[in-house]
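Section handout, structural biology tutorial.
Before the tutorial, make sure you can parse a SMILES string by hand: atoms, branches in parentheses, ring closures as digits. In the record below the ligand is S-adenosylmethionine, and the chain has 186 residues. In the tutorial you will relate the predicted C-alpha cells back to the input. Do not try to memorize them.
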Amino acid sequence: MIHFFKCFLANPGTIGAIAPSSSALAKAMTRPIDGAAAVFEIGAGTGAITCHIPMGKTGVPLVLFEQDHHLAVRLKDRFGDALVIEGFFHDTINHLGDLPDNLIILSSIPFKSLSGNLHFSTVEAICNILRSSPNRRLIQYTYFNHVPFVPHHSNLRWHRLTKVWANLPPATVWELRVDTSHRLDG
Ligand SMILES: C[S@@+](CC[C@H](N)C(=O)[O-])C[C@H]1O[C@@H](n2cnc3c(N)ncnc32)[C@H](O)[C@@H]1O
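Predicted structure of the complex:
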C-alpha cells in the first residue's frame, strides 16, 4: 500500500490511483472470467485484482503486464504460477506470439491520465487483439461514468457491466468487444 502510494507520487499519470482496488471492485472485474482460455491482466500493480483470479481452480494461463519495475518484481514473487511481463503492454505483447481465441483482458490502465502517445499505442494494441475475434473481451474500470476510451475501430462496442460503490473512489466496470448485433445469420 505504502509502496503503491510512493509509485503514484513518482509517476501519477501512469499509476493513476492513490490506492489499490478494493476487493469488491476486484470481484466485479474477475466475475466475467468464467470459461476463458487465458487471462491477461494489464497494470496488475500490487495484485489487488490478480489475487481474485481463480487460477488454481481453472488452470487457465495467466499473464500479468506491469510497467513499474518494483511492482513487477513483487508480482513475480507473489504469483509464481503467472507469467509476469515487465514493460508497457503495447511494447511487450508481440513477444507472446499467437493468442487464444477466447481471451479475457482485465485492465486497470488509467487511460484518462496517460500521455498522448502512450494512450494511442495502448488503445491500438488492445483494439487489434479484440477485433480479431468476437470471443475476446476487455474488462476495464473507470472512476467516472464515461467509456474508458474511444476505440479506433468502429466494430468494437462498450457495455457498462456494473457500478461498484465500495471502492475509493466508486468505480464503473466496462466490457469492450466486437459488436455482433448487426450480423446476419445464415
Ligand atoms: C490504477 S493502478 C492499478 C493497480 C491494480 N491493478 C489495482 O487495481 O489496484 C494502474 C497500474 O497500471 C500500470 N500501467 C499503466 N499503464 C500501463 C501499461 N501501458 N502497461 C503496463 N502497465 C501499465 C501502472 O504501473 C499501475 O501499476
